[in-house]
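Dear support,

I submitted the protein below through the web form. The confirmation email said the job was done, but the results page showed an empty box. After a refresh the structure appeared. I'm attaching both so you can tell me whether what I see now is the final result or a partial one.
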Amino acid sequence: MASSKNKNNPNSTIDFLKGIGLDDSQLEKIVDSYPNLLRSNVEKTLIPKIRVLQDFGICGSELISVIASNPSLLNASTKNLLARLDFLKSILGSVENAHNAVMKKAIWFLSNSLSKVLQPNFELLKSYGISDEKLQKFLVKYLWYLSLNPKRVQESLVRVEQELGIPPESGMFLYGFKVMVSLSKRDSELKFELFKRYGWSESDVLVMAKRLPQCLLISEARLKTRMDFFVSKLGYEIGFLAARPSLLMYSMEGRILPRYAVMQVLQERNLLRRNPSILSVMVASESRFLDAYVLPFKDELPELYEAYMAKNLPELILLYRKRKVSNSSLQDTCTYIIKESKQS
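What the results page shows now:
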C-alpha cells in the first residue's frame, strides 16, 4: 500500500490512489468531484479506509471498482464506514452475502447514513413482525429499499394493508411493499381503474393483488393481450385469472403462445392421455414442460420439437397446416397466435 513522507501533499494522494490501481481518467473524475481529497492525510484518513474495505474482502479490481463508483467513501469517516459494513453483515447473515451485495447491487449502501436512513428503515420492516429469515432473503435481493426516505417506507408499509389488504404475516407482504413503493396512492387508484375498464371488479383486483401484488405493475398493453387471449379467446372468467394471476405475468411470445400451440397440436393428433389444465401447462418449469409435452414426441414429430425449441410460432403453425389440420377452431387460434406473436 502506497504512502508518502509528505502526507498532506496532493501528489501523495494521487500516488496513493494510483498505487491502488486507479487509472488517470478515474482519478480525474474523483478529483473533479471531490477536490478536497487532495488535501487528505494519506496515512491517517485514506489508508485506514482502504484497509477496512480490504478486510471486508474488497481487494484488487473490486477495490478499484468500489472507489471509482463511489469515491465519496474516501470522504466518510473510517468509523462510519466500518459501522455500515458491520450492519450490512448483521442484516444479511454472512460476510459473503454482504460482500456480494456491495459488489453486485449496493455500492451506494456504504454512503447512506446508518442512523438516519439504513437502521430506521430496517427497524420499520422488523416492526411488522417479519421474521429475520424472511427479511434477510428479501434484503439479499432488494437491499436498495433500505436507502429510501424512512417516511416513504413507513407510508408504503401502511398502504400494503390499507389498499391491498395484505397482512404482515402473508408471504406476499414484502412484495406488496415493493409495489406500494413503486406506486403513489394516485397511481394505485389508476391501476385499479385500469383493471375495472377491462371488466374486473374491485374484489377481483384485490384477490389478484393478495396472491401476486406485482400484477398491479403490468402495463395496459400486457393486460389487454392476456384478457384477449384467456377471456375472449379461450373463454375463461375474470375470476379465474384473478385467482391465478401468474398467467398475467408470463410472456405471450416466449411462453404462453408456444405452449398453447404445442398443446393444440398434441390434442388434435390425440397424443395426450389426459387434458391438463391451462394453469398446469403454463406454470410448469421449462424442463418439466419439455419432459411432458415435447420430448416424448420428438421422434414422431421432430418438427414440433425444432419449432418449439426455437419458439418459432409461425413455423409451428405452418407445419400443421401442411398436415391439413381441418379443425376450424385450431385454424382460428393459429391465425391469432401469429398475430399476437408480432404484437406481444
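Response: this is the final, complete result; the empty box was a page-load delay. Residues 2-6 have pLDDT under 50 and may be disordered.
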